[in-house]
């Protein structure tokens, strides 16, 4: 493996979170992130605040000329914005104010957005079909999202001049959409599969809103389509270590060899026993299996939780984040951990 061709805005030996945290106080959450992982900070998401702070509602607030509202069956495309969308926009505005006030001088800030496929797999049309089931509606949604992400990043750039912005697209539903296993709203059937030739350009449109080297896709599901993500413009892929298997290990090696950063979820996202040694060994163990030089590890792998931490207790979220920070820094040693 040669040195990665791309240079990422984050430094070697850092860790980061995947977005969500427990609690409802955004200033407290921002302060925690800035105190714990200032080298690779992220805009925290707090779904415990309620409707509009959830991942679908939060991303719906970014859409341009495509309003959504909460209906009894879920977030639904509507003709005009209502109180639910206004609430989602208000949450996001408060979050941006908090990071603007407390995050001046940050080198790097990551923001998370639900990806177009997962958004379409969860949002519905007025006829109660998933957006994903209508290719025309899906294209409209992905174009609206792409413009919304571009404007979102532009606003952040104006609020935090000099800070490099990293975009993370959350795509947990992508494998199910490709395999045709997304359930219909009734739950009695599944939405027809979406082809890679449709999903890829949608991902590419949204990722294009971020600068090259700053585009990440997070997929905490089995059967991650690594090649599709990289061909769509992802500079980094975030995955759950526990879902790796022999079938996808070769794919991981291929994208890493091509210069893609690997964000590796090495601690559980909900309360569990934590071990620095075990988390670090997961990183080094995978690196050994892939056969790459230890000297390249810190510049390629970013330790993360397996998924968001919204379902964890506040104490666990703090401990897990600090442990991951220490794991990341330890990778700079460039040597395998002791097996004694």
From TrEMBL:
Every Cobalamin-independent methionine synthase MetE C-terminal/archaeal domain range: 116-327
Organism superkingdom: Bacteria
Pfam families: Meth_synt_2
Xref: InterPro entries: Met_Synth_C/arc, UROD/MetE-like_sf
Name by which UniProt lists this protein: Methionine synthase
């Amino acid at each position: 493996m040669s040195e990665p061709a791309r240079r990422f805005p984050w430094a070697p030996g850092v860790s980061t979170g995947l977005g969500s945290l427990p609690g409802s106080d955004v200033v407290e959450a921002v302060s925690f992130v800035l105190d714990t992982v200032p080298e690779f900070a992220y805009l925290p998401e707090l779904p415990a605040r309620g409707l509009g702070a959830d991942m679908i509602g939060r991303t719906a607030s970014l859409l341009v000329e495509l309003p959504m509202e909460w209906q009894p069956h879920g977030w639904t495309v509507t003709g005009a914005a209502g109180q639910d969308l206004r609430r989602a926009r208000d949450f996001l505005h408060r979050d941006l104010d908090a990071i603007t006030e407390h995050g001046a001088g940050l080198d790097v800030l990551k923001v998370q957005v639900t990806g177009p496929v997962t958004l379409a797999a969860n949002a519905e049309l007025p006829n109660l079909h998933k957006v994903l089931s209508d290719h025309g509606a899906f294209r409209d949604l992905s174009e609206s999202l792409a413009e919304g992400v571009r404007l979102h990043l532009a606003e952040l750039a104006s609020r935090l001049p000099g800070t490099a912005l990293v975009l993370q697209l959350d795509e947990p539903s992508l494998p199910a959409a490709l395999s045709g296993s997304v359930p219909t709203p009734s739950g009695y059937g599944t939405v027809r599969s979406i082809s890679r030739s449709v999903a890829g350009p949608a991902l590419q449109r949204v990722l294009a809103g971020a600068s090259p080297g700053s585009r990440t896709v997070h997929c905490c599901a089995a059967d991650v389509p690594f090649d599709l993500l990289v061909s769509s413009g992802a500079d980094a892929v975030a995955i759950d270590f526990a879902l790796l298997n022999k079938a996808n290990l070769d794919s991981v090696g291929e994208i890493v060899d091509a210069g893609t950063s690997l964000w590796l979820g090495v601690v559980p996202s909900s309360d569990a026993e934590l071990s620095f040694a075990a988390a670090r060994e997961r990183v080094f163990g995978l690196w050994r299996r892939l056969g790459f030089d230890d000297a390249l590890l810190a510049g390629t792998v970013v330790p993360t939780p397996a998924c968001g931490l919204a379902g964890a207790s506040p104490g666990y979220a703090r401990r897990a984040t600090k442990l991951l920070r220490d794991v990341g820094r330890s990778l700079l040693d460039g040597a395998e951990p002791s097996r004694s």
